[in-house]
Amino acid sequence: MEKRIDSIDALLTKYAGGQMPPLVDMENPRAGLVNGELLQIYHSGLLAKHSIPLGILLAERGRVSLNEKWKGGNFRLNELAKPHWPAFCTKLRETLIGNEICENCDRRQAIVAEQMKENGVITYLCDNGLVDYATPISVKDQVVAVLLCGQFKPREGSIWNPEFIQPGGLFRPLESGEEGVDAWAASLRRVRDIEQRVGLAEGTLLKSLSDSVNPAVETSPQEVVDLQELLRHAADQLSDLASSTYELEKGKVVNQIRNHITSSLVPLGASEDSLAVWKGLSDGLAYVTRYFMLDYCLILSLPGENGREIRILSHLGLPQDKFPMGKSLPTAKPSLSRLRDTVCESEEPVSIVLRDHKDLPIFDQLHHLHKKSKQQVVVIPLPARLESATLVMVLGRFKQDTEVSTLGSDDCEALDHIAEAIALVAEIVLLVEELDRTASAQALFLEDVAHNIRTPIQNIVFEAEVLTRGLAFSEEIERRVRRIAAQVRRLHLMSEKAWTLVNIDRGVFAHEEKVLVYVYQTIMEQRKSLLDLAEKRNLQISVDRKLENWSAIRVNKGLFSQAVLNLMDNAVKYSRDGTEVRVDGKRVPGDIVGGKHIPGGVILSFVNRGIPVREEEKDKIFERYYRADEAKDWIQMGTGIGLAIVKAFADYHGGNVEVKSEPVPGTRDYVTEFRIFIPQKGE
Description:
Layout: H1 8-15, H2 35-50, E1 54-58, H3 66-72, E2 76-77, H4 87-93, H5 96-115, E3 122-125, E4 131-139, E5 142-154, E6 159-160, E7 181-182, H6 183-198, H7 204-212, E8 218-219, H8 221-262, H9 274-291, E9 296-303, E10 309-316, E11 328-330, H10 333-344, E12 350-353, H11 361-369, E13 376-381, E14 389-396, H12 412-437, H13 443-468, H14 474-506, E15 515-517, H15 519-528, H16 531-536, E16 540-543, E17 553-555, H17 557-573, E18 580-588, E19 591-593, E20 596-598, E21 601-610, H18 629-634, H19 642-652, E22 656-663, E23 670-679
Parallel strand pairs: 5-8, 16-18
Antiparallel strand pairs: 1-2, 1-5, 3-4, 4-5, 6-7, 9-10, 9-14, 10-11, 12-13, 13-14, 15-17, 18-21, 19-20, 21-23, 22-23
Helix pairs in contact: 1-8, 8-9, 8-12, 8-13, 9-12, 12-14, 13-14, 14-19, 15-17, 17-19
């Protein structure tokens, strides 16, 4: 039976640095990568069905060269295989010299098989004079094990390719007209040579060979071709099984790390204690450092163009007295701009040398903690959508340089997922801090946001606890991870709305240029954020395909995206289950009415079927924090800021937004349409 892994510690030990675990755990064979499945294939497949003795050589977990694998003996023979060697091999391996001969031959051929893994299977004449096979098992193009299958006596009188009997020679089919050799004669010479080295009387091993290898396991060149095909098939099955298990288990590590990180939001469920969140985030960073085999992980907030302080949000592995969480350190503006240009422009992880940024106090302190002259670290921009700051994560080791390439290509996706979780936590906490600073003007808003954030956080914590304690069955894990992802997206949508509102108050958008934006592309991007909620209620979100052919319009991109998102979100939330949300639009030309020029532009409409918008409420619903009574009865939670942002967008562009709500005959439903007009020059 497969051993259940209940702890992230066990998983991190197994998958630290994204390294491939061995196919079988040497200390506990049944707890290896493919667990009982390997034994099943081994016993009921190759050994029982085909009478093929099997040895398993495990590759070293780390990334080492082939030469080091040979010198260091990092290919190790699985003890499970030894009882199944033929009697001849077992007897020979029990002698000191014979065991050394066999082990050296095993490792040497394992390396050859790894070098020629694209061929699938190699066949050779082992040092004991028997026909043997080596088959590599790969995960993501990295060999994790080599299967050794044998041994077979060369059939007397059969003709083999000439190089087969030479040292290092491999089997291949004879070419037309090619002169072959007698492999059995070469086999006899090797057996006699072993007898001399082991100190046995001449003929002793030959008799043992004849007694233990019956005619049924004699093999000819044609039979070798047939067996190679069988082994290729078995190797493909094991490689696929190992790959799928590796991805599943490694994904479990990443999901648990993300759960620990998002669980740091728990203090916000009771109060706006941001320092408690930064300390909680530090606990999650402990798993990040272990996974990527780092000494420390540091989360920083870099100020915008007008700011001059770098803030330490959270860290793991650094002294608290020198890196106090939540504290901001003054920084010279030119130095900060240079760092921002180096790190943030690429939007990708970059390697930097600490001594090149010693004029920044935080990097100067890191510089003194390192033990090497070069002191290279990796800095990763975090995908947080903040107007006033840029978040970065610094990863490093004290006694050696850390480069992007050393993190491992297999872990880029894992790093992205972890960075998203960290960015989400920081984004929400920084939002709460900002709101707290303006609490006098937004007291009601703060109360609603706290209420809305608490529920998804509690849901995340509950699901994370179930997964972390191993209380979920394997078939439940994917469903619970999807629930966590849905709650994370819910928090993200709330933070997007809130940050937009804060930036409207600051006048941030007034200084931004309008740019060309494709309407259809923007609508489809925002639609993705609502698909989970829509699918849960069996709603369809239909977008008129004619919008795809529209030329771009000139708008403030950030405000336009938020206006579209809020109108679709509003339509989805207040729709009857099983109905349709429709998004349509039309272009309208300019006109002259009563001597006055009426500008042309575009009209976008968002239609849903559900609760009504009463006539007396059509103006109020665009006021900040206002929620109609029927809307509260339909959905208790809500901030009342989505439509206020839509109104701000329309006003900013000199347009307008209107709502029409009409009853559906014979039902209690209403069809509600929000129409937003966006003026455009030249229309």
